[in-house]
Amino acid sequence: MNTNQPFFPTFKSQERRTALQIIQDEGLVGKLANKVFVVTSCSNGIGIETARALSATGATLFLTVQNVKTSQEALKDILEPGRVELVQLDLASLASVRAAAANILNRTSVLNVLVCNAGIMATSCGTTVYGFELQFGTSHLGHFLLFELLKSIMLSSSTPSFHSRVIAVSSTGRRFEGINFGNEDFKSNPKEYTPRGAYSQSKTANIYMTKEIERRYGSRGLHGGSLTPGGIFAGIGKHTLGEAQADWPKNEVLMEAKLSIEQGAALTVWASIGHEWEGKGGFYLEKLQRAPLHPDPTDGEYLPFIPGYAPHAFDQEKAGRLWTNSLKMVGLENSE
Asked: How would CATH label the architecture of 13-329?
């Protein structure tokens, strides 16, 4: 692997800011008491640090978790009845998504920001209870349905000074390949399945969803943006094949690129509340900036922390096609 290529990332101090530092730098400590956020998967990893930083704004937070009891312990320092509360949600279950959305709608008529943080990575071949490939069904379809069910209050909550935002946490892993439209119902085929390919598809779908949100609703004050948090060795990697995961600490490139969890949550927070992105959408962020087009490595190797997006990530025709298919898959064909 050639690490001396001119496009290999350098890590400057501003790229190492923590999520809480972003809140402080934006001057928003205690300043968003009238705003409401929903953040998915807040029981571990960058979800916890995203929640802690956003809590410092004074906003009302609904934090989704799979296991409420264990998550209460992990988040005990910020939980506050009536302001920072947990919502049970299993994104792999469309029934659970519907129940969680109903729970949120019973508690609030306002929603300014939806952070689609949850995801799973490189799992063995499997499906959701509805038969969809597990990574696609969890990381994309669960979030897609959640957005559709909360969309109306997000549109009505948008104001001239603070437009509503949907932020999706993608990954550099989406550069491997795009959406496989040869499998229109996105079911798992064990003969063709690869953990990396399925992960890439799910992370490309995150970008496509926010691109379509921007195209469909940006003019109405509801915007969509996506990002990659950077190199973080957190809970999402638990399914990665053991041998490859064991080699990570031996790789100087990966260790140089590694961010702390607090730093990894910074980009999600910046996209969610940063003044830079007010009234804007359709962006893909990386290393605290808008990502450039990703150049092809000359040695043919995948360099995961070289910044940039692959051309397929901004294919509007495919984004629209996935949106139409997703509506059918979650049973909302007639949704506008």
From this structure: 3-Layer(aba) Sandwich (3.40)
Give catalytic residues, as residue numbers.
170, 199, 203
Query: Would you call 218 helix, strand, or coil by DSSP?
Result: helix
- pTM for the full model? 0.86
3-state secondary structure 175-187: HCCCCCCCCCCCC
Residue 169 DSSP class: E
CB 5 within 8 A of CB 308: no
* Helices 94-107 and 142-157, packing angle to 10 deg: 20
Structural domain spans, the chain? 13-329
Residue with tokens 């943006």: 225
Q: Which residues contact 265 (CB under 8 A, 6 or more apart)?
A: 18, 19, 46, 47, 49, 50, 53, 229
Helix ranges, the chain (H): 19-25, 45-55, 68-74, 94-107, 134-136, 142-157, 195-217, 242-247, 252-257, 261-264, 266-273, 316-329
CB 49 within 8 A of CB 262: yes
Distance CA 43, CA 234 (A): 12
Mean pLDDT, rounded, of the chain: 83
The 10s digit of each residue's pLDDT in 62-105 is 999 999 999 999 999 999 999 999 999 999 999 999 999 999 99
User: 230 near 49, Cβ under 8 Å?
Assistant: no
Instruction: Using the structure block, give the residue that is written with the tokens 């571990």.
Output: 44
Question: 188, 169 in Cβ contact below 8 A?
Answer: no
Are 34 and 10 spatial neighbours (Cβ–Cβ below 8 Å)?
A: no
| pLDDT more than 90, % of the chain | 58
Alpha carbons 219 and 77: distance in angstroms, whole number: 38
